[in-house]
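Hey,
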Amino acid sequence: MGFLIDIIHSHLLFTPPLPTTKFTNQIIIVTGSNCVLGLEAARHFVRLDAADNVANASIEASEKRAGVVEVWHLDLSNYESVKTFAKKCEGLERLDVLVENAGIVTERFVRTEEDESTITTNVVSTFLLALLVLPKLRETAERFNVVPRLSVVASFTHWLTKFPEGRGEKIFETLADPEKVRMDDIYNISKLMEIYTVRTLAALISSSKKPAIILNCLNPGWVVTEVMREWTGLRLLIFKINRTLFARRTDVGARTLVAAAEAGQESHGMYMDDSKVGKVAPFNFDEEGLKVQEKVWKELSEKLERILPGILQNI
């Protein structure tokens, strides 16, 4: 009941504040910025004087700033595309902010690379990219005496899963099995796994003697998007009615991405909600839940090391 009250309060009685912190001279990457939430977040960054954005070129016209946007291809369903994208990041003069916004919602089982497509896109490739750009973020920290940010777009939907697969053996293998995976819950699971991974990875980053960065994740809330484009009939109609009543405008929801990118040390390893450090689902973060978090990281880190041997040394 408390969760529902918080959601209603968040969407009816609270409006994320318009970001005002300047990003002058900073280079910012927002993945998934070809449309909707990522596009609007990138538009905010350009408005806030970012020097360069990897985003949608249409932003330059809308914000009347020429030469500040580049468009790069990234396909998170393909490891080689992620590696190529990260390689381009190495060529930047600096990288101050990476907002990992790209993700998918689907209830159709499709295998991409080794896993179900939601897990590949929202979890494996998201953190493959994160680890690949860590050296560039740290180089920026050292050269320019700044604290770069790496923000992952999670979701309040992590409250909607009990993640029973996490209590079993071989989590990723179970989620990749079309006979076992629960596709109606897979998006919620992927968002919980993102939060688990951010918490673990942030702790490892903090224990490193390398230049500091801030890693956090965030909930943009229920935002007007087309992520449920596969739904049809009565289910889609009910969804659209509720979206009309409760969902934030896309540009308003995008403010939460900028809030995470400007948040301070208090946000490191944390889940941000309504543009500040928020509450995670307690039943997924009790003593047993923390054991699941350890298992998720163990399996994911082993997978990432198989994909690119030596990548864990970037931490």
